[in-house]
Amino acid sequence: MIYDATVPITSSMPVWPGDPPVKLSVKSHLSRDKTHTVTLTAMEMGSHTGTHVDAPYHMIESGKRLHEFPLDTFIGKAAVFEIPGVRSIGRRELEPLKWNGVERVLLKTENSKHWNDGKFYEEFVYLEPDGAEFLVERGVRLVGIDYLSIDKYKSESHPTHFVLLTKNIIILEGLNLNAAPAGEYSLAALPLNLHNADGAPARVILRN
After folding, report:
1. DSSP E strand stretches across 75-197
2. What 3-state class would DSSP assign to 85?
3. Residue ranges of domains in the chain
4. Fewer CB under 10 Å: which end of the chain, C or N?
5. Alpha carbon distances (Å) from 52 to 21, 108, 180, 196
6. Which fold has domain 2-207?
């Protein structure tokens, strides 16, 4: 089974408050021989639109940039852990889970139900710094969550980002895991190949 965990990019999609809104404009012109119309879409959006990757440079001035990570960071075995009924995810919620061999973890929460709200969802579930520290201890390479930040809304210092990014752990935000049951998968989360970037939108596929 293949699951697409990517949020569709549309002009009406929710974006992080203050980020550039998405503007998709259809452009067209007649072919030179006037037998058909050539259509393309002009795109305006931020690098952290929808389902996207955070590289350390997003928060750390001297941090690694997106193109400096090998492709195998974004491709390989991953575990989807469903953690319902919580406001945040800390060490207490993570410790009981099965971590043997887990290098990439995607956190499925009630956030995934809110992608169709039609507006930005402020009360999204986030990862506590002590939960991030636990993941560092477990040696994970990539951590994903199903809304637009892994930190609490209106966080002033972004502590969870710093715990992970200072250890060169890639953050994958904006997932939609509604359709994907908890379990083990083969993950492909390939960001756009933006050079010197702080992050980029990604197409995220899960296969079991």
Report:
1. 75-82, 88-89, 104-108, 126-127, 142-145, 170-173, 183-191
2. coil
3. 2-207
4. N
5. 15, 16, 18, 15
6. Glucose Oxidase; domain 1 (3.50.30)
Enzyme catalytic residues: 58
Q: Which of 112, 163, 111, 162 is nearest to 138 (CA)?
A: 163
Q: What is the DSSP letter of 181?
A: -
How many residues in total does the chain contain?
208
Backbone dihedral angles phi then psi of residue 51, each to the nearest 5 degrees? -75, 120
Q: CA-to-CA distance for 68 and 76, rounded, in angstroms? A: 18
Give which of 21, 175, 57 is closest to 112, Cα–Cα: 175
Tokens matching residue 66: 């997106």
Average pLDDT over residues 111-122: 95
Write out pLDDT tens, residues 137-152.
999 999 999 999 999 9
Q: Two tokens at 90?
A: 């800390």
Extract the tokens encoding 8.
Answer: 């569709």
Taking alpha carbons only, the member of 144, 166, 179 closest to residue 52 is 144
Contact predicate 65/103, CB 8 Å: no
Instruction: Tell me the whole-structure pTM to 2 decimals.
Output: 0.96
Give me the phi and psi of 56, to 5 degrees please: -55, -35
The pLDDT mean for the chain works out to 97
pLDDT tens-place string over residues 154-192: 999 999 999 999 999 999 999 999 999 999 999 999 999
